[in-house]
Amino acid sequence: xxxxxxxxxxxxxKLILLGVVAAYVFLFxxxxxxxxxxxxxxxxxxxxxxxxxxxxxxxxxxDAGFALGKKLFYDPLLSRDSTIACGSCHQQFVAFAHSDHRxxxxxxxxxxxxxxxxxxxxxxxxNFMWDGGVNxxxxxxxxxxxxxxxxxxxxxxxxxxxxxxxxxxxxxxxAFGTDTITTQATMRAMAQFMGSMxxxxxxxxxxxxxxxxxxxxxxxxxQVFRAKCESCHKEPLLTDMSFRNNGLDQSFANxxxxxxxxxLPQDSGLFRVPxxxxxxxxxxxxxxxxxxxxxxxxNHYDSGIQMSSTLDPxxxxxSIPLTLQEKNDVISFLNILTDYSxxxxxxxxx
Amino acid sequence: xxxxxxxxxxxxxxxxxFVSCKDDDDEDNHATHVSGPGTVTLDISxxxxxxxxxxxxxxxxxxxxxxxxxxxxxxxxISNIRLYNVDSLVYTMPESYFLVDESNQTTxxxxxxDVPAGAYTKIKFLxxxxxxxxxxxxxxxxxxxxxAMFWTWSSGYIFYKLEGKSPASTQPDSxxxxxxxxxxxxxxxxxxxxxxxxxxxxxxxxDGSREAxxxxxxxxxxxxxxxxxxxxxxxxxxxxxxxNALLIADNYANMFTFDHIHNDPH
Lengths: 350, 266
What we know:
A: mainly alpha; 14 helices; disordered N terminus; B: 5-stranded mixed sheet; globular
């Protein structure tokens, strides 16, 4: 079926070139009757979502650009010793988080310091990383490439290796009209691929859009969530993108979080509020992966909050009280945030 | 590009015809001159006091704290170049981003093309990269992030890199590493500095028929001294925005001095 899709796409290109739009629409409709899926646009704004931060300015997603970005995403060539690809720590079946890894290992089996987050809806993120240190989607891949415990490679050397390749120059030419391999072209191709990772088709989304019903427990969980969690995990992205100290520790000597970037003492111990979409898949939880289960997380907010001077004002009461029933229902709700069509989408498969 | 070339050509033709009109009235002064735009060169000599910087690490210098040191690396950004006639801004070079690298002497000659004909008395530029380009994603040319002048973990350009060795350093390998940058005003980390160089009473004439070169000195000893005394014993490593980076930034704002201009007809 994948091959059929490619044929459709090639055909579409030719037909657009010929300007026979009507014939294309007819053919497209005829084909889609026979096959279950039609090529959806790479990037779109799901119902209810705000405008994205990354607007694909000067970088419209194309078949060739997306294909190049995908090739790069799964290519360990980006690492110093060709052992680690982006896809090593960002696996599709767990919404591009690192399955069951508290921390991830990079080159020479070196261990990272923070939990690998899932990748989806990142075109809506104003900045990246647990500390928000990266300010633009196009420069995000530079961080793991350069990090000595992740890929430990210089971008200059990545370019050298890409130029040596037997197929990359052709792919760059197809994507950007020139086989000159640059940092900008490389990063833009990756932005096309990763920026197109949209997750907005969970049972929760279908419920919100009036297309399905949810169980009584899930509904109760949603109501508890909206009353007690939503002030930070704001719908529809399920994060407000802010940085907060959620009471994990009393001191932050090991990892100052946001303060590492801003140098401001009031930012010590603050970390990005993560999206809760696909949260059932992306365990373990928190910036250091300290909690194994969603119940551990809810127990933390109920009875584990540690006091400190930068503790988030919403938590200074010391607890978000939750009954066992509420916890179970919230977990039922969190489970309907899993987007199976996203994790199974062939488009993103290695 | 073709369009802009056409526009330039059009402008050149216009200005030539303008000159030929003037020639009718004032033949003596303009008969043999072209009066079109020209290229101005900003020629930077990196020095340590009175001698050129040797970035191979084999020459020792002494800073104002009395510490001897050698230099292995010296790289910095010059951007946003503007040319003035007295206090009137005449020309802003578009896309003016230069990475000066002492190990590659071609990078110390900054070509400013398409400067309109006229007389200029000073130049202004930034040491560093304007905040907009620090937040605009993957870049090309001098700003290519592969030039190793970009913090990947805290997005932003390293404006100024000075690395070397000194017995005053407390590092095991006696190294000192100054990577200075930071573009945000909010939390007092802005290390972008504007430099103004006045041509000491001279005028630089641009008319398309003569060389137009501004020669300036950039003194690393001032980076250790003016106005802030930087001691390698006290600061051997600075690789993030804020704090001591600002002291060094205030110093590199003062490292340039005007030396002379070359302005002879070709």
